[in-house]
Amino acid sequence: MPIQLLRQTDQPLYLQVAEQLRQQIENGELAPHTRLPASRILAKKLGVNRITIVNAYAELEAEGLVISRVGSGTFVAGEQQPAALAPSPLWRGSPVGRRPWNANQMVAEMMRLARQPGVISFAGGSPSSEFLPVHELRRALNEVLRRDGVAALQYEEAAGYLPLRETIARQMQQQHIPVNGQDILITTGCQQALDVTVNVLTRSSEDNLVVVEDPCYLGFLDILAARRLTPLGVPVDGQGMQVDRLEQIILRHRPRLIYTTPSFHNPTGTTLSLPRRRALLEVASRYGVPILEDSCYDTLYYEGEPPPSLKSLDTADIVFLAGGFGKTLAPGLRIGYLVAPSAWQERVIAAKQTADILTSPLNQYALHSYLHSGHYADHLSLTRRAYRERRDLMAAAARRYFPQEAVWRCPAGGMYLWVEMPPSGPTATDLYMAAINYSVVFALGSVFSASNSFSHAMRLNFATPALDEIEEGMRRLGKAWKELLARNIRVQPVNQRCTMPIL
Amino acid sequence: MPIQLLRQTDQPLYLQVAEQLRQQIENGELAPHTRLPASRILAKKLGVNRITIVNAYAELEAEGLVISRVGSGTFVAGEQQPAALAPSPLWRGSPVGRRPWNANQMVAEMMRLARQPGVISFAGGSPSSEFLPVHELRRALNEVLRRDGVAALQYEEAAGYLPLRETIARQMQQQHIPVNGQDILITTGCQQALDVTVNVLTRSSEDNLVVVEDPCYLGFLDILAARRLTPLGVPVDGQGMQVDRLEQIILRHRPRLIYTTPSFHNPTGTTLSLPRRRALLEVASRYGVPILEDSCYDTLYYEGEPPPSLKSLDTADIVFLAGGFGKTLAPGLRIGYLVAPSAWQERVIAAKQTADILTSPLNQYALHSYLHSGHYADHLSLTRRAYRERRDLMAAAARRYFPQEAVWRCPAGGMYLWVEMPPSGPTATDLYMAAINYSVVFALGSVFSASNSFSHAMRLNFATPALDEIEEGMRRLGKAWKELLARNIRVQPVNQRCTMPIL
User: Cβ of A354 and B219 within 8 Å?
Assistant: First the structure.
């Protein structure tokens, strides 16, 4: 492990040490699980202060290249977590922080590609730009600034603008959720509602495991990775999360939280059946495990309303209900909300305030004015009709252009068609690369799994693209797949590190 | 430790256990440092599943009432951290999470009181409502929605709207900070810039200590508490942070980060001198300790510009520069920014995206349009003139109405006058309670200290109130203080738990 330090450069010594160790790890000179010298010893050898080495190791740990274990030292990270740390057979993959993609890279790539002229994107999670109520929101903003301009531009209560919270509470009461405005925390998008919940529920414990559907919304997997929490994946079938597995998981792993999107799940589109909703609440209540219910797609239903929300069925007061207006109205407002169980309401407000003080009151006032204009119900009807038509077109195109062995379920709501291509054929990554040449982008199924599973799955957004783009994009995807098959592309091993460039 | 469980109620068993333990802790039946029974044993005794007890203990731990130590068990928390855990003599106070106040409670109280008719508030951190450019921002919003309505309401790149980032970069270039737009991350207020920085810098390490000025911006102390990090306070004098103490602290405690507000520090109003800025950079670079520079008051100067920012002097690329438009333009836009050292830029973008996906593009577009209108420079001149006048009036009133032994320094910028009342007299908490009867509110000095110090200090905001309110409010404060003194109010012990109601 030779390390050479230059004293005459601007680069701090600890970064020089980190860089040379990084190279040795990446080129294999330092093999996985190798124990690095104690910081004292390496410092003495190099003639530097021990802090230099401690900081170099911390740098490498932040990058996920080494792991430090209290009392035993610092080790080169392996592709697999050491057996002693692996919490469960359900956790099938690589260590936290080593997922080949994160939401950031995915979304960055998707945004960049989707802006290229001529690209057909099935990749994102945006609502259709066609229906954004620009005019009505502009009217609302003007009304607010004329009437309440100073208040809308000043600080506001951290929990949010009370009239907006009361309006949201009334919508919830219609869904038999017994809340009032004071119970509602306004968040900066639904994402912050999820992050705040994870924050307050996982502060105290050492073994922080969180139950998720597998696959799962990738922004939630990012929250877990950022907080060094471990996802425990529960498989999903046509009825949603396989709830009958939960009791064993709870008894064995004592999870801090169960995260679920019961209606029109992202990415699979499935809906948790009513019996399973009741069973989930029963088992979670029995063991006192909180549930975080992500309701952000609930109002995008195409075959009638979904079963009652978990929150409306929750007699034990253990459900955190998160939602927002990004998928159903306008992502750019960045307004979501969270209803926490009563014992947690003060703590979620404090956590939200610590994160960003408050959500833009300007946008809160404008949303409140818009919701009172009465346009929202019409807007939802319009988008539901349009998205249902797109869903049907995409499903028909999948039947027409995809191989017979491909598997998908037509979702009863939401934005996504989840397609599993035949496991004997090209992987989704192969198809992704080939599809870029046809100017079509989609989301790889594997990014939604903490475990690197779903190598042959893809998530196709049918809400964002226009009708003619759906037909044409699906045709090109089918063509790309057939070409790969004809070229006899070898199936790649599931666990390989994804090496394609982030475009 | 008798515990009685009811099986016929809706309340989960673990909450029943937690509640009864909580009562026993709070009424003293369970003394500080008492070891609770092992979960296995208590579970057997009560005839419940072990998970019930584990969850009850976790609930109490989340509330800060018990502490669990791996391998040794769960203990009732004490008023003092056990000596073995106390990281430093500089950490003079109560365990993390046990500060008597947090920003949330402070701001909630301040907002509530300030809304009462007739109350004069020196407590908050708001800019004056008089100068909010409502009309210009409304014009900017309309321009944006006419021209770019769909883009402003859709998702946007996580790092922010590039033209806005380029505009901010040009402002920085004028201050000799060599950045371009790509180096700038737009955040949801300056608070998120601080939180994101702490997040990326403290993920990997076990001993997470952070150097702060003592006293320190209380929202930053909340960030540390929420992430279970320990502040190491460095005293502040007329030249700002006492930088000569840093080397010893770094060598002894290996902090992950040094947080500072070098210009017009909140709450003391002090400015770090140029020699100390250079010394701070030198010592931090030598040991590779990153600096987080909070610049949110930099443009509010009343005696000429402050010394060059740390970022502009930073040749080792170790400074994270955080700033925002909340103090200088409009809090309600919720727009801040962060310039990270180049090695950290990808990671801060990912952390920001995990927190809330992106900052409202509507507000970003509008701010960009406003900044291009050319009104901002005039707005800053106007507010600087007005705030300087208010500062001078408040300082004159302090001379007139406060006791001779009271100590303050006239700040060269920012929003706050920090006043230390004579230590032999009533505490600031006494004065706070008395002042409420006179309809005057201020911020207690002790909330800005992780250590519960500054029992006789108060922070007075001179920017928010109108001129006549300053004169009248200071007169009432002086009167309240004299009455307390005349009634011979006993000096309260510094470490007592603050028991006054949150109004």
Answer: yes
Judged against a pLDDT cut of 90, whether residue B501 lies above it is answered with: no
What are A297's two structure tokens?
A: 């797609």
Distance from CA of B10 to the nearest CA of A (A): 6
ipTM value for the complex: 0.80
Domain coordinates of chain B in residue numbers?
A: 13-78, 103-130+382-486, 132-376
User: pTM for this structure?
Assistant: 0.81
d(CA B213, CA B245): 12
On chain A, the residues whose CB falls within 8 A of the CB of B51 are 250-251, 254, 287-288
User: What local confidence, expressed as pLDDT, does residue B102 receive?
Assistant: 53
Q: How confident is the model at residue A233 (pLDDT cuts 50, 70, 90)?
A: very high
Q: What topology does CATH give the domain A13-78?
A: Arc Repressor Mutant, subunit A (1.10.10)
Total count of residues recorded for chain A: 503
- Work out the mean pLDDT of chain B and round it to a whole number: 88
Domain A132-376 sits in CATH 3.40.640.10: yes
Instruction: For residue B103, name the pLDDT band (cuts at 50, 70, 90).
Output: low
- Domain A103-130+377-486: homologous superfamily in CATH: Aspartate Aminotransferase, domain 1 (3.90.1150.10)
Burial class (CB in 10 A: 0-12, 13-18, 19+), A237: exposed
Torsion angles phi and psi, residue B474, rounded to 5: -70, -40
What would the mean pLDDT of A202-230 be, rounded to a whole number? 89
Closest CB from A138, A154, A357 relative to B132:
A154
Which of the residues B53, B252, B346, B360 would you substitute to probe the A interface, choosing the one with the greatest number of A C-beta atoms within 10 Å? Answer: B360
- Cα B487 to Cα B469: distance, rounded to the nearest angstrom: 27
Name the DSSP class of B115: H
Nearest to B332 among A111, A349, A360 (CB): A360
Q: Given a cut of 50, is residue A99 above it in pLDDT?
A: no
